[in-house]
Structures are given as C-alpha cells and as structure tokens.
UniProtKB/TrEMBL annotation:
Any Pfam family the entry gives: Ring_hydroxyl_A
Requisite cofactors: Fe cation
Superkingdom of this protein's organism: Bacteria
SUPFAM superfamilies attached to this UniProt entry: Bet v1-like, ISP domain
Phylogenetic lineage: Bacteria, Bacillati, Actinomycetota, Actinomycetes, Propionibacteriales
Full protein name: (Fe-S)-binding protein
Occurrences of domain Rieske (ranges): 34-140
Record key words, sorted: 2Fe-2S, Iron, Iron-sulfur, Metal-binding, Oxidoreductase
Cross-referenced PANTHER family: CHOLINE MONOOXYGENASE, CHLOROPLASTIC
GO molecular function: 2 iron, 2 sulfur cluster binding; iron ion binding; monooxygenase activity; oxidoreductase activity, acting on paired donors, with incorporation or reduction of molecular oxygen
Length: 412
C-alpha cells in the first residue's frame, strides 16, 4: 500500500480504517516522532502535572522540584500499576495507589516497603521519555533516538514565538473533542482551507480562507475578499517591520522528519483576532505584543498539531489517536497571565468561534470517515490549494517507507 500510493491522490481506504495500519501508525509515526502534547502554562508550579494518552501508552508530564519539565512513563516500576488517573493535578511526590511505591517528581524512587536488603532504589526510577520545550510548547518523543532535526526546527520557530511569552501565559480554557474519524483525516482537514468558505461561517469573518491559494484559485465571489486580503497583507508587512518580528513563510512540511510550516497571516475586518469580524476577544494583549493588529502567527507541525498566535490570545491544538476510527482533538486557549475572566475576557467570547469551527471540522471528518470506508471509495485527486494535504500525506508515506525498509532497526 505504501509503495503503490499515487502522488496527488488521497490514501486508499485501509489507511483510514484497518487496525494493522493504525498499529503501524502508532509505532512508525507516534512512536518515532516529536509530538506536541501540552504547554508549560498548564504546569506552572513544581508538582503540577498533566497526563497524556498516546494509544495504549500513558505519560505524566510534570514540572519537577527543580522546575524542569519531565515526561515520565505512567507505569509503576513495582508491578506496573498506573500511577496517576487524573487528566491533571498537583502532587508533592507520585505515590502508587497499589503498594505505595513513592517517586519524586523527577522520577526517582524514594520509598518501597519490605524489599530485600540488596534492593537498590536507584535501579527503579520511573522510565522517562524525551521531552523538549519550545517557546512554552511541550513536545515529547517516545523513541529511544528521536529525530535529530528538532533543535534546528526549534531554532527557526523560537524567534517567531518569542513575542507571545507563552511560558508565562494563563490557561483560560481547554476542550477535548472526540471525533469518529482516523487521526489522518483530522490532520488532512486541518491542512487545507478549501472547505473554509462553505463550512466555517464564523471563522471566515476574521480568517481569510486563502491558505495556499494563488490568484487563479480565487473565484469571482471571493474576489472582493481577496482584495481585502492583499491590502491587509501590506498592513501586516508594515507592522512586522515596525516591531522587528520575523515575517517570512517557512514551508518545510515534508522536507524533514520534524515537518513544519510557520507563517504570519493578516486577518479580515478589525484585523485583531478571531472574534466576529476580526474583533479582539481579550482586552489584554498577550506577552510583549504592542498592537492588536498583529495578525495570526500560524504554525503547522507534523504529525499531530497546529497553533494560532493572536495579539490577544493563543490557541493550540493536539491530535491524539484513540482507535482506527476515533481521535481526540485537545484545544487549549491561553491569555496574558494578568487577564481577568469577566473583565478582560469571557470564556464564551474567547472560545465560541473556534468551538464552532472545531465542531464543523468534526462533522466533516466524520463524513469523510464514513465515505472512505464505503466499499465504493477510491482515492481522489487533491486540488491545487490542497497541496499541504499532499505534503502531509507525502511526509506520512515517506515515514512509513523508511520505517518499513529492512535496514531500519527499531524496537518492538
Ligand atoms: O487551523 C488551521 O490552520 C486550518 C488552516 C486553514 C483552515 N484551518 C482553519
Ligand atoms: Fe506500584 Fe505495587 S504496583 S507499588
Ligand atoms: Fe476547518
């Protein structure tokens, strides 16, 4: 299936439905690559943690007593019990509920009752996985040897993210949306705006639906919107120059193991944020941002995330597979640490457009899942404006190809 995949066409059905491909995805993609899982703002204090489920693997992302972010396996080293069940919380130490083995937040074992005198606690710390933070975003990699290009990617992205000071931000809201669709359909849907005009009435009052469009792709109906887009682009150029922030598009979605794209987009209407007609949704601007008209810094990362950085808030999205036909989209809204709910923002005002957008996307993904599992489905051709979908699939197919080639050594 990997070898016969036709460039420019959607994948054949089994990629979206079979347990075998899902299991392979969990190994070759989710087991090998850097995954976006959380933000530093979710665990501001020592002992704060969130749990993340990646297929059957559970991690505790915790800030240890030295304020370092750790990613610990949520598996007791005594007889394997899950340590922590809650989605988030705060602990002094991690105490196993089964026989009370006790670990520090750095994973080291400090208490185990009734072991033989020769028992060496140092040999039984919690297993750790690779973890990296970039501008307040937390990434983990389950592989023994993570892709080596992450540092390079981080150094490109970091200057774009600096203004937002996400590390100090406040989490205003988070939603977990379960979608009845394969994780790749969720990602494919995110990688194009071909569906935006017809499906996202609230979003397109601020978001120009021209992702990967060139002039020829603009329909007569969209011409006036395109004119506004061109004017807004020029304004944003000036704002970026004045504020000395990076403006260039970096498009490396399928040219490296840690594929990504970062770009700054102008917004329609007021040009400030994702409120209706581009209006601000939080009175207090985030980080060091000096003007509401700061555009939308948009970051797409393979395999499982996308991000929008606005002048007044940041929204981050991570996709975690649950089953071949089921995925979770976790969305987190962040604001300035001093922004006060009820005064500077309301949850409804901050989140309503993207809650609607996520739900519209969920419905599209679920329709696609039902269609691609119909026996009559055959792969169809991507539109020109869907070339980031092609990039995602191209990246995915190459990863599977590399993983499956005989000389590739990997742990079972
Ligand atoms: O969130 C995004 O970045 C994608 C891209 C365009 C449509 N969708 C909203
Ligand atoms: Fe954790 Fe026994 S399984 S203490
Ligand atoms: Fe969408």
């Amino acid at each position: 299936m990997v070898e016969r995949r036709e460039v420019g066409y959607s994948l054949e059905s089994a990629f979206y439905a079979s347990q075998e491909v899902y299991d392979l995805d969990m190994k070759a993609i989710f087991g090998e690559h850097w995954l976006f899982v959380s933000t530093e703002a979710e665990i501001p204090e020592p002992g704060d943690y969130v749990t993340v489920e990646i297929g059957t693997q559970s991690l505790i992302i915790v800030r240890d007593d030295d304020e370092e972010v750790r990613a610990l396996r949520n598996v007791c080293r005594h007889r394997g019990s899950r340590l922590v069940e809650d989605a988030c919380g705060s602990v002094g130490n991690l105490v196993c509920p089964y026989h009370q083995w006790t670990y520090r937040t750095d994973g080291s074992l400090i208490f185990a009752e009734s072991q033989s005198p020769s028992f060496d606690k140092n040999q039984f710390g919690l297993k750790q996985v690779h973890v990296r933070t970039v501008g307040g975003l937390i990434f983990v990699c389950l592989a023994d040897e993570p892709p080596a290009d992450f540092d390079e990617v981080a150094s490109v992205i970091e200057p774009y993210l600096a203004s937002y000071r996400l590390k100090e931000a406040k989490v205003a809201h988070q939603t977990d949306l379960v979608e009845e669709g394969n994780w790749k359909l969720v990602m494919e849907n995110n990688r194009e705006c071909h569906h935006c005009d017809a499906s996202h009435p609230e979003l397109i009052t601020s978001y120009f639906p021209f992702l990967r469009y060139s002039e020829e792709d603009v329909t007569p109906r969209m011409q006036p919107i395109y004119e506004r887009y061109l004017a807004a682009t020029e304004n944003l150029d000036n704002v970026c120059k004045l504020n000395g922030v990076p403006r260039e598009l970096v498009h490396e979605l399928d040219t490296r193991p840690t594929g990504f794209m970062i770009m700054r987009l102008p917004l329609d209407g007021d040009g400030a944020s994702f409120g209706i007609d581009g209006s601000q949704v939080c009175k207090k601007l985030i980080g060091d941002v000096t003007t509401p008209q700061f555009g939308d810094l948009s970051l797409h990362m393979q395999p499982n995330s996308w991000f929008h950085f606005l002048s007044d808030h940041v929204i981050v999205f991570s996709v975690l597979p649950i089953a071949p036909d089921k995925s979770m989209v976790r969305t987190t809204w962040l604001v300035h640490p001093d922004a006060v709910e009820g005064e500077d923002y309301t949850i409804e005002g901050l989140t309503s457009v993207w809650k609607a957008t996520n739900d519209q996307d969920r419905a599209l993904v679920e329709k696609a899942q039902r269609g691609v599992t119909d026996p009559s489905y055959v792969p169809g051709p991507y539109a020109l404006v869907e070339d980031d979908v092609e990039s995602f699939i191209n990246w995915y197919i190459r990863r599977l190809h590399d993983y499956l080639t005989p000389h590739h050594e990997h742990a079972e």
